[in-house]
Amino acid sequence: MTGHGLRGGVTAVLAGLGTCLPPKVVTNDDLSLVLDTSDEWIVRRTGIRRRHVIEPGSSTSVLAAEAGRRALKSAQCDQADAVVLATSTPDMLCPATAPEVADALGLAGIPAFDVAAVCAGFVYALATGAGLISTGIAERVLVIGADTFSTILDPTDRTTRAIFGDGAGAVLLRQGEPGEPGALGPFDLGSDGSLSQLITVPAGGSRQRASGVPAAERDHYFTMQGKPVFKQAVTRMTESSRSVLARAGWTADDVDRVVAHQANARILAALADSLGLPPHKIASNIDRVGNTVAASIPLALADADLRTGEKVLLTAFGGGLSWGSTVLHWPDVVPQ
Ligand code: UT7
C-alpha cells in the first residue's frame, strides 16, 4: 500500500525526538559466559558488540514513557492529542500499554493505543500518527517505539540472545505544511501473512489457549528462522524503499542517509548494495544496541548525526511479515 497521507495541504511534521535505553549493558563476552558463543562470532555474523536490557521490575511502558517525555522536551512541548505506541512486548497481553504511558506523561484522557507490527512497528505507527493528523483528528501525536525482547527470549537460544536488545524511541508529530523540513511521506506499507511462521511467539495468544492444551514452556519464547528472514529483510526493504522513493519523486542518489531497521550489519550492507548506495549513507548503531525491534529506527535516528535538510529514507522489516518505508527532509531538532 502506498499513499501520501496528505489531505487539504495538512501533513505531519516531525518536531521532536527522544530515546531511552535501560542502564544495564550485556556484552558479547557476558553472553559467552553462559552460552556456547563468542564475541568473534557475534561481531562477524551480526556486527553487534553489546545491547541494553531491562532489570526485573522494569517493563516496556517505563522505557516508552521516558522516551516520550524526552521527545516532548525535544519538541519544547508538553502536550499531545494522541499516543501511538509500537510494541510487540506490551506490559500485558491486555490492555494496551499506550494508555498507561499517556497517564505516566500526565496526558490521561487522550486517545492512546498500541500498534503491533514487530520490527516494522515504528513505521506503521508513524503512518498511523500521520493519518490522525492529516484527517484532522489530532494536531500533535506522540509516536513511540518500545520493546523489551529480553523478556521473551529463550535463555538457551544463542542466536536470538545475541541479537536482541531493549530500548525505546519516540517522536512528536505536529500539524504542518507538506513542504516543510520534517514533513513525513509518502509511505509504503505491506505485509505477507503466508510467512508468519518465520517469526513467532507461539503461546500466550488465543490460538494455543483456545485448544485447551497447555502450552509447552518453551512455546512462550520468541522464535525466528534466521536465514529466510535475512533474505526477506533485504528483499522487502529494498522493494519498499524503491517504491517510496518513486512515490516521492526521489532517486536513490538523492538520498543523503538511510535509517533502516537495525537487524544485522550484514543486512544493512546488503541493503546498501541492492539500492546502489555507498555504505556510509546507511546509518548504523547496531554495534551498541543490537536489534531493538520497534525502537530501532528512532534510536538510530538519534545516533545518526543527521544535518538539517538532509534527505532521509526510513525503511523497516520484521515479523508478520510486515514492512514499511517513508521519507522526510531532516528538520532542525535536537534529540534528547
Ligand atoms: O528484526 C527483523 C527480523 N530479524 C532479522 O532480520 C534477522 C535475520 N537473520 C540474521 O540476522 C541471521 O540469520 C542470524 C544472525 C540470526 C544468524 O546468522 P547466520 O549466519 O544466518 O547463522 P545460521 O543461523 O545459519 O547458523 C550458522 C551456524 C549454526 O551452527 P551449525 O548448525 O552450522 O553448527 C548456528 O548454530 O552458527 C551457529 N550460531 C552461532 N554460533 C555462535 C548461531 N548463533 C550463534 C551464536 N554464536 N550466537
TrEMBL record:
Its EC number is 2.3.1.180. Transmembrane segments: none annotated. Residues 262-266 are annotated as: ACP-binding. Its main location: cytoplasm. Pfam families: ACP_syn_III (PF08545), ACP_syn_III_C (PF08541). Residues 245-330 form the Beta-ketoacyl-[acyl-carrier-protein] synthase III C-terminal domain. It comes from the Bacteria. Pathway: Lipid metabolism; fatty acid biosynthesis. The keyword Lipid metabolism applies. The keyword Iron-sulfur does not apply. Keywords: Acyltransferase, Cytoplasm, Fatty acid biosynthesis, Fatty acid metabolism, Lipid biosynthesis, Lipid metabolism, Multifunctional enzyme, Transferase. The active site is at C119, H261, N291. Residues 113-193 form the Beta-ketoacyl-[acyl-carrier-protein] synthase III N-terminal domain. It is an enzyme of class 2 (transferase). It is found in: Cytoplasm. It catalyses: malonyl-[ACP] + acetyl-CoA + H(+) = 3-oxobutanoyl-[ACP] + CO2 + CoA. Belongs to the thiolase-like superfamily. FabH family. Homodimer. Catalyzes the condensation reaction of fatty acid synthesis by the addition to an acyl acceptor of two carbons from malonyl-ACP. Catalyzes the first condensation reaction which initiates fatty acid synthesis and may therefore play a role in governing the total rate of fatty acid production. Possesses both acetoacetyl-ACP synthase and acetyl transacylase activities. Its substrate specificity determines the biosynthesis of branched-chain and/or straight-chain of fatty acids. The last Arg residue of the ACP-binding site is essential for the weak association between ACP/AcpP and FabH. This is Beta-ketoacyl-[acyl-carrier-protein] synthase III. It comes from Streptomyces canarius. The gene is fabH.
